[in-house]
Amino acid sequence: MNRPKGLQKEEIFLLSRILRIVDTYDVMFYGRPYKPKLSQEEVFNKLETGSGSKMILILVRDL
After folding, report:
1. pLDDT 10s per residue in the chain (63 long)?
2. Residues 29/37, Cβ–Cβ less than 8 Å
3. In whole angstroms, what separates CA 34 from the centre of its chain?
4. Three-state SS letters, 2-63
5. Quick check: 38 and 29 in contact, CB under 8 A?
6. Residue 3 CB contacts under 8 Å (≥ 6 apart), including other chains
7. Burial letters for 21-36: b for 16+ Cβ neighbours within 10 Å, e otherwise?
8. Which residues does 28 contact at the CB level (< 8 Å), separation at least 6?
């Protein structure tokens, strides 16, 4: 995964992390020509299990 300036987890700006969650949600929920869409429940389950950090999990749960 590409990270700005090699930053890790909490070093990445909060807004950037929020935008990543929103973009990921959009891809999974609305689908793409190469990727089928998922139900909202499936999307939230994937976001929670793949969050990778406590802060991201908190952001995901607050959606």
Report:
1. 455 566 666 667 778 878 888 888 899 999 999 989 999 999 888 888 876 666 566 776 665
2. yes
3. 19
4. CCHHHCCHHHCCHHHHHHHHHHHHHHHHHCECCECCCCHHHHHHHHHHCCCCHHHHHHHHCC
5. yes
6. 12
7. beeebeebeeeeeeee
8. 35, 37, 38, 42, 43, 46, 47
